[in-house]
Amino acid sequence: MAKIGYKIIKPDDNKNITLIANWYLNEWNIPIERTVEKLKKLSLDNYEFQILLTLDNNPIATGGLYNHVALLDKEPRFKIYKNWLALVYTKPENRGKGLGALICNYIQDFSKNIGLKDIYLFTHTAENLYKRLGWQQIEKIVLGNKNIVVMKKEF
């Protein structure tokens, strides 16, 4: 049976930060330098963190909780919300196996355990996943050619 593990990425974990930065570049064209800078600044003092999910000690998925996400630049009215679950990524060959739900559940549980009462997200591709995980829709908006749903999870 495969062993699943979770790791909080620390600012000095250059190997995994670089790995995640490359994943984000390949998936969403986010510049490597931007991801590296963001991950090195994360602090649990600000309720921000990045999680790496491993399968038999091999990194296969990641995601994090952030106070600033790209949506806030385009729709500043959402700045009233903090603690955004974002940038959930699973390696393509590991998709469709429930691992995205596992990392999201871990991030949710960790958020609750550090004292948060609610967290937020936005998506245009995984609304059904998040509904299954107990998220509630706040609002639907159209950005560019994407139908975005903004969601909230209360603890």
Structure description:
The structure is a single chain. With 155 residues, the chain is an alpha+beta fold. It has one domain: Gcn5-related N-acetyltransferase (GNAT) (Aminopeptidase), CATH 3.40.630. 33% of the residues lie in helices and 33% in strands. It is built from five helices and seven strands, in the order βααββαβαβαββ. The protein has helices at residues 14-28, 32-41, 70-74, 99-113, 127-132; strands spanning 4-8, 49-55, 58-66, 84-90, 118-123, 136-143, 146-154. A four-stranded antiparallel β-sheet has the order 1-2-3-4, with helices on both faces. Strands 5-7-6 form a three-stranded antiparallel β-sheet. Helix 1 (14-28) crosses helix 2.
Overview features:
Aminopeptidase, alpha+beta, 155 residues, 4-stranded antiparallel β-sheet, 3-stranded antiparallel β-sheet, 7 strands, 33% strand
User: How many domains comprise the coordinates?
Assistant: 1
Structural class: alpha+beta
What share of the residues does DSSP label as strand, in percent? Answer: 25-35%
Average pLDDT value? 95
Shape: globular
How many β-strand runs?
7
Distance between the termini: 31 Å
Assembly classification: single chain
Name the helix and strand elements from N-terminus to C-terminus, one letter apiece. Answer: EHHEEHEHEHEE
CATH H-level homologous superfamily name: Gcn5-related N-acetyltransferase (GNAT)
